[in-house]
Amino acid sequence: MLWDGDNWQEILSGLKKHKLRTFLTAFGVFWGIFMLVLLIGIGNGVQTGVMRQFEDLAVNTIYVWSDRTSIPYKGLKAGRWFPLTNEDTEALKATFPEIQNLSPQLNLWGDYTVDRKDKSGSFRVSGAGPEFLKIRATRIQAGRAFNLLDMERNRKVAVIGTRVREVLFGSAEDPVGQYIKIKGVFFQVVGLLGERAVGGSREDAETIAIPFTTMQHTFNMNNQVHFWVMNITTDRPLTEVESRIKTFLALRHSASPQDPRAIGSWNNAREFNSLRGLFRGVDAFLWIVGIGTIIAGIVGVSNIMLIIVKERTREFGIRMAVGATPASIIAMIIQESVLITSVSGYLGMVAGVGVIELVSRLMSTFKMQNQYFSNPYVDIRIAVIATILLVLSGTAAGFFPALRASGIKPIEALKEE
């Protein structure tokens, strides 16, 4: 019965006879699967764009700094600020074996420009340890990074970002080996930071990094640390290690371990997991919206099948009077429902995937990725599964009208106007 050519010819003839109704019914299903695929692709694009901001930092990264106290402790008043020192750096390395890489950091504050011959610009100048490049997984595009020997000898060397090179040297001139002037002090450029498509590219491009010890000695920041950035390697939760480090530093500087403001921190894993949880919620919302749209299309198919059953009541009565079985009537209605949902659902899936692929290709070709949206995609397996579920739903949508048609009594059907 499934492959009965005459039966399929009747179905196609009926669909052609009511072209507008067939089109509107099919379009409802097409639009439902199209929107579901489109929403999934857009959601993946947003998730990719935001998550790629974490590529320049390992998930097990912690930033730690000092702030003003908010709780009196050991006779000391609240509102006290205490500086971090080189001794704190050594104490952290000695006390916490979980710290894989540790880089003390300094920022050069105030109004100043970076000069090179007749060109100048305003850029962020940071003092860092060589471990910082490992922690951020920042590659060197040309030249080299500064190393421990540079730190020990307080060498005036610098690694610059691509934007710094563009402003001070232009795109044609090789900056490696050349000199720039920071607050009147000459530094030799030894390396060029690599560009990132997203996630920190602007920060890297506008950065000048110099050895931490050189920053201390050159700009009168002796024995100062503004903050640390570190990688943690442990099986224990990162938040536990973070809490222990903060307590350790608070006690070293006579601050209350319960003071929430004395030691500040930023846990990359916590932010990463928060975003993952957020996107799980977004994915669930998009699926609810998409499935709701599909259900609306399926309801439309079911309603149309009921109308078709009503219109063909006499026909079904005659068929049953001459020997047609209820199963054959059910099969005819279900086949028509499945035909509409499967064809329109397949076209909707193809159209949705095609649009997402086109957008992804255009963004890649014209380098349009940014930190909020990048490389949208759709898992083809999910799209196929959604389409299969749609066809099964179409079968269910046609079943109840078909069941009603199979229960028609021939005598009553022949009396139907």
Polypeptide structure, described:
The protein is an alpha+beta fold and 417 residues long. It contains 14 helices and 12 strands. The chain folds into 2 domains: 5-54 and 273-415, no CATH class; 61-269, no CATH class. Strands 1, 2, 3, 4, 5, 6, 7, 8, 9, 10, 11 and 12 form a 12-stranded mixed sheet that branches. The longest helix is centred in the C-terminal third of the chain and has 44 residues, at 268-311. The radius of gyration is 34 Å and the shape is elongated. The model has no long low-confidence stretch (mean pLDDT 84).
Provide a compact summary of the structure:
The chain is an alpha+beta fold. The protein is built from 14 helices and twelve strands.
Provide the descriptors you would attach to this structure in a database record:
2 domains; alpha+beta; elongated; 417 residues; 12 strands
Portion in strands: 15-25%
Total discrete domains: 2
Helix content bin: 40-55%
The shape, in one word, is: elongated
DSSP summary: helix tally: 14
Structural class: alpha+beta
| Poorly predicted sequence stretches spanning 5 or more consecutive residues | none
Q: Sheet bearing the most strands, described?
A: 12 strands, mixed
Could you give the distance between the termini? 29 Å
List the helices and strands and how they pair.
Elements: H1 5-17, H2 19-51, E1 61-66, H3 86-95, E2 99-107, E3 114-116, E4 119-121, E5 124-128, H4 131-135, E6 140-143, H5 148-152, E7 157-160, H6 162-168, E8 179-182, E9 185-193, H7 201-205, E10 207-211, H8 212-218, E11 227-232, H9 238-252, E12 263-267, H10 268-311, H11 313-321, H12 326-365, H13 380-406, H14 410-415
Parallel strand pairs: 5-10, 7-9
Antiparallel strand pairs: 1-11, 1-12, 2-5, 2-11, 3-4, 3-8, 6-9, 7-10, 8-9
Helix pairs in contact: 2-10, 2-12, 10-12, 10-13, 12-13
